[in-house]
Design goal:
By secondary structure, the protein is of the alpha/beta class. The protein has 12 helices and 8 strands. The chain has a single domain, classed as Rossmann fold. Helix content is about 40%, strand content about 20%. The protein is globular and about 40 Å long. About 50% of the residues are buried.
Length: about 290
């Protein structure tokens, strides 16, 4: 059965609500998708068509404080695998694949480190890497370097600035998309023009800021802090996908992760950017995760 179900949730053991959406082939093999920053469960729509073709049941989860998931004060990246396990248990998934896209990358890496016995496969797709390493931000856009530089010292300021700006943009999404695409590499601008992509992107952003600024501030601070584990401690195989013209998560960050993860199968694409990789290569990426 092929159908998108965009609003579901479970109640975790600590009483929090964890929201998720399902896309693709709902009777297919399960793959849990971790959205970008800021983002939401609705990002799963970007791979829905290719997931249906590949027989993949995509389960995209709102991280705490995004969309329909309750905020969790003082959360850490290493807390995420426990939420994932509870959702998988609730859905009856003994084993499954995970895919972290952009800001979802560290969360997929945490799952590879802490719950490998539950995972069939792991993919990092233009995934954010650790920031405290010389040279990893080379090639990153000035806007992102400023954003994460601010997050290092004043994380609360990130959401305070970003969320009102995003909400203003969402009142006129066509203009917002045009302004955003103006700073993108040409290959990403073309990806944004694919049917349904801009609409799915806007819908995901609207859910991302639904609960306000504190979630965005919290997560920005998590990326630039100690993640609570070393990439070198991951023992299972990890697939890494990186565009060479990505200005959001630059190739230098991808290369560092590929070098640190012992069993990393790295795929670098000379002509792909950030969005173009996640959208245009989704069929190939999903195939790499197939059981």
């Amino acid at each position: 059965m092929t159908q998108d179900i965009t609003e579901q949730h479970i109640i975790l053991r600590d009483g929090r609500k964890l929201a998720y959406a399902e896309f693709g082939e709902l009777e297919g093999w399960p793959m849990l998708q971790f959205h970008g920053f800021p983002g939401s469960r609705l990002e799963g729509a970007l791979v829905s068509a290719n997931a249906a073709k590949a027989g993949v049941r995509v389960i995209c989860i709102d991280r705490p404080g995004y969309g329909g998931s309750d905020f969790l004060p003082d959360r850490r990246i290493v807390d995420w695998p426990a939420d994932v396990v509870q959702l998988a248990d609730a859905l009856g998934l003994a084993r499954f694949a995970v895919m972290g896209v952009s800001g979802g990358g560290p969360y997929a890496a945490a799952c590879a480190r802490f719950i490998p016995e539950r995972l069939r496969a792991v993919a990092l797709v233009a995934g954010v890497g650790p920031f405290g390493v010389a040279g990893v931000t080379e090639g990153m856009s000035l806007q992102n370097r400023i954003l994460f530089g601010v997050a290092r010292f004043w994380p609360g300021l990130v959401g305070t600035l970003m969320v009102p700006m995003m909400r203003r943009g969402l009142r006129d999404p066509d203009t917002m998309i045009k302004q955003m695409s103006g700073s993108m590499p040409e290959v990403d601008r073309r990806a944004l023009e694919h049917p349904g992509v801009a609409e799915a992107f806007v819908a995901s952003l609207a859910e991302a800021v639904r609960q306000g600024a504190r979630t965005v501030s919290q997560e920005a601070g998590l990326y630039v802090s100690n993640w609570g584990f070393e990439l070198s401690s991951i023992e299972m195989e990890v697939q890494l996908f990186q565009g060479e013209v990505d200005a959001n998560v630059p190739p230098a960050m991808g290369r560092y992760q590929a070098a640190q993860i012992p069993k990393c199968q790295a795929h670098f694409y000379p002509d792909e950017g950030h969005m173009s990789l996640a959208i245009g290569r989704s069929q190939e990426i999903l195939a790499s995760l197939a059981p």
